[in-house]
Design the sequence.
């Protein structure tokens, strides 16, 4: 049952049309940031207002929504966004990656490969990949229009000169379709290769910064690197303490005061599925 | 005064369904989607083009069209969109008869390529499986699209449009209740 007094999916129709037009242009120009009139949402900036507005504009009653926060379905941000859409749109939600048609994510891409019938919506805090190198928007817009990304190459080179390797573990810049430099949002560099030629449509919403951008399905996405320092997705060299996965992205947990540590899957649904699979096989 | 036909029966959910069909078409260029808008726009506007306009056009988007007064009146009433005689100022260009040349439309700027217009081009029919060979973002290997009634010299004009990337015009091809999209990033080769 949806909350009375709200339009379906909270936003009014004029706002949705504006966001929908921005999304269509974003898909037509892969990786280019489109300004849009982000609205005040009933939760603070930094909690996924951009992603929520994108989700609200594409969502229909037949959709099944999954929301993850750093891979987990059961953290505050994910639970409250899921409940928000249950209340204002009355749609079904799920924690299973395979059952979802729309997945809104904060800082992770699910381990299970996505399909053509799914849309991945990212919450983006800072859409401008050059922001820390060039804070003037007027200037970064010009750099994007000229496809001049020397600044970022120098930034990565300086890491190599000082540390011997590129020390960027998340929000690792990518080139989309060899034209636009794009921030993949603060997903771990480990997830970057999943964006390349993904079967699902990827939409990015930044609420405070008022930008929308997109990567269409089957689009080349290349993490910036150098011939002699190729891009390396980083993963903790351990197995998950619960499901034993040696390929998934791991979170490090401190378990006691004596320096005890455990590594577990960041993707809770993936981990749960793996825990249940051997049981099902045994029965 | 002609009798005005209704717009979407459910303005919220019908607009959403029609947008999702357009989004799907735009994300997978050349794949034909069906818009079941349950609307009857005045002739010569087909139902897919009508549904696309109802779900995307409003007071912020000047329209240019060659579909006659009945369609202009219908769109003005249901979308509240201003109709402009200046094709270069239009966000959506609706072509039912002879297609305007792509060069006459707004292509945006290098810094704001998203200002490029969307051409809603009505054609005789869309057939999948043969015809043009499309490649580019959104297409895994190759999509085939046969457009019956495509304007003469369209593939050459499209190559010029494509060369302007990231500036350029995006096209929605509509026939009856089917729709296919050609975002500016897609390349077309004759089959």
Sequence:
């Amino acid at each position: 049952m949806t909350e009375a007094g709200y339009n379906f999916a909270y936003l009014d129709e004029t706002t949705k049309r504006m966001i929908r037009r921005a999304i269509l242009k974003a898909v037509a120009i892969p990786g280019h940031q489109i300004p849009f009139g982000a609205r005040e949402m009933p939760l603070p900036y930094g909690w996924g207002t951009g992603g929520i507005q994108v989700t609200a504009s594409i969502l229909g009653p037949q959709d099944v929504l999954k929301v993850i926060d750093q891979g987990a379905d059961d953290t505050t941000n994910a639970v409250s966004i899921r409940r928000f859409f249950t209340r204002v749109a009355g749609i079904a939600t799920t924690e299973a990656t395979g059952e979802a048609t729309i997945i809104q994510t904060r800082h992770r891409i699910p381990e299970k490969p996505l399909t053509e019938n799914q849309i991945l919506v990212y919450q983006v805090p800072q859409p401008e990949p050059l922001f820390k190198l060039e804070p003037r928007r007027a200037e970064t817009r010009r750099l994007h229009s000229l496809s001049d990304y020397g600044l970022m190459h120098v930034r990565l080179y300086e890491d190599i000169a000082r540390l011997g390797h590129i020390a960027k573990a998340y929000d690792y810049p990518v080139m989309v379709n060899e034209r636009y430099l794009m921030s993949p949002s603060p997903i771990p560099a480990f997830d970057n290769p999943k964006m390349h030629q993904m079967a699902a449509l990827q939409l990015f919403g930044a609420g405070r910064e008022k930008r929308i951008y997109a990567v269409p399905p089957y689009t080349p996405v290349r993490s910036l690197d150098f011939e002699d320092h190729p891009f390396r997705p980083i993963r903790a060299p351990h197995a998950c303490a619960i499901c034993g996965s040696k390929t998934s992205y791991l979170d490090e947990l401190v378990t006691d005061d004596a320096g005890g540590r455990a590594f577990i899957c960041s993707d809770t649904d993936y981990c749960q599925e793996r825990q249940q699979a051997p049981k099902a096989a045994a029965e | 005064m002609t009798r005005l036909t209704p717009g979407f029966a459910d303005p919220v959910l019908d607009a959403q369904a029609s947008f999702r069909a357009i989004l799907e078409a735009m994300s997978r260029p050349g794949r034909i989607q069906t818009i079941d808008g349950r609307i009857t726009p005045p002739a010569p506007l087909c139902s897919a083009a009508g549904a696309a306009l109802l779900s995307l056009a409003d007071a912020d988007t000047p329209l240019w069209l060659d579909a006659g007064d009945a369609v202009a009146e219908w769109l003005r009433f249901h979308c509240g969109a201003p109709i402009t005689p200046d094709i270069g100022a239009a966000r959506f260009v609706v072509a039912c008869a002879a297609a305007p040349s792509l060069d006459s439309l707004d292509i945006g700027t290098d810094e704001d390529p998203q200002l490029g217009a969307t051409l809603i081009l009505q054609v005789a029919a869309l057939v999948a499986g043969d015809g043009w060979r499309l490649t580019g973002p959104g297409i895994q290997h190759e999509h085939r699209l046969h457009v019956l009634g495509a304007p003469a010299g369209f593939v050459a004009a499209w190559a010029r449009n494509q060369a302007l990337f990231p500036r350029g015009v995006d096209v929605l091809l509509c026939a009856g209740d089917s729709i296919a999209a050609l975002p500016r990033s897609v390349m077309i080769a004759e089959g």
About this structure: The interface with chain B takes residues 7-8, 13-14, 16-18, 20-30, 32, 34, 57-61, 116, 141-142, 144-146, 177, 179-180, 197, 199, 201, 215-220 of chain A (CB under 8 Å). Residues 131 and 137 of chain A are 8 Å apart (CA to CA). The radius of gyration of chain A is 19 Å. The longest strand of chain A covers residues 64-69.
